[in-house]
Amino acid sequence: MIALIFLLGLVYISLNPELLSETVVTLELENITEVNALNLSLSPYVDNLSAYLGETIELKAFLFRSSSESDVSVVKTYIVDDDDLRIEIIVLDANHRSLLPVTGRSEDIYLVSGVVEEDIVDNLRFIVRTLTVSDRNIEEIVSQEWVNKTVLVERNSPFVNTLRDFTTNTRALFK
To answer: Can you tell me the distance from the alpha carbon of 78 to that of 36, in angstroms, rounded to the nearest whole number?
Structure first.
């Protein structure tokens, strides 16, 4: 009789393997990283370009080309930021000129290196020395958050271990 009850118990457990383990919910601290693309801003330079006179500086911006409304033969080139602030540029290298859009703003962002100079009528201009495709600067913000984690834990006792071994071996016989 005891053997029959034991055998029925084994059959029951083999049909319900979740009885050999339990689900435990724990609370864990997890790092969450948020990546933000930073805005391109020329405002520190636009507001005070004369402070950089004679210096080589690097700026990240879009390229922009416009023609005069009154005279289409007058074409001006600029670097422009997300807020549409512009600095007029002089592009001397023919390879660099080929990167300029036909009209309007470029789709790509460029790292523009050059020198701020004064022309003969005291206008400041930015003479481009190098021009390379670039990416936006990004900012990573890491925060911590409590998260519920569900873990399946096997029950551990001599009786449960015996039942687990028996049911595993029995299932293997019937496959």
So the answer is: 26
Q: Would you state the torsion angle of the CA atoms of residues 147, 151, 155, 156, taken in this order, to the nearest 10 degrees?
A: -80
Alpha carbons 94 and 67: distance in angstroms, whole number: 19
**What does the alpha-carbon distance between residue 75 and residue 35 come to, in Å, rounded to a whole number?**
38
Instruction: Please state the domain extents for the chain.
Output: 19-36+138-175, 39-136
Instruction: State the DSSP string of 60-81.
Output: EEEEEEEE-SS-TT-EEEEEE-
Tokens of 48: 């005070």
CA contacts within 13 A on the Cβ side of 11: 6
Fold exhibited by the domain 39-136: OB fold (Dihydrolipoamide Acetyltransferase, E2P) (2.40.50)
pLDDT tens per residue, range 53-92: 888 999 999 999 887 666 566 778 889 999 998 888 888 7
pTM > 0.90: yes or no: no
Six token digits for residue 103: 């009209």
